S-protein homolog (Hibiscus sabdariffa), 144 residues
Amino acid sequence: MGNLKNVVLPLLLAFSLLHLPFAESVWFFNYHIHVRNDLRSRNSLPHQPNLLLHCKSKKRDIGDRPMTTGQDYTWDTKINFFRTTLFFCNARWVGHKSRIFDAFVAVRDEDRCSKYHSSCMWSVRPDRIYFNHNNATWFNGYPW
């Protein structure tokens, strides 16, 4: 009888957690992270990458992405059970500046990025890196 309690009670608890209102967004909801290269440099050649982007989380390394002006890089993620999902990026503007920024933080972005197709959008520009969650208004994100 004791063994039955040890098996059944955890299963009932896990099953009940799946039916909580937040469970679907935590475990099954995809968030789309976009980073767009909006750098305009007079010194770079057309179709020559002027931004090197390296994004990763604790468990997933997306790797280096050389990007030309106007190029958009997108990946998807889900929020883990503990809501600690974090993706950070190192943006290197070739010959100019470098900046590490948090592209997705579960507790910060869960609500604000769900407003427009579950997308967090970033624009890398000469003056700073901007954030957008509604495809209309860009907010100051990170200075160089």
About this structure: Residues 19-25 have pLDDT under 50 and may be disordered.
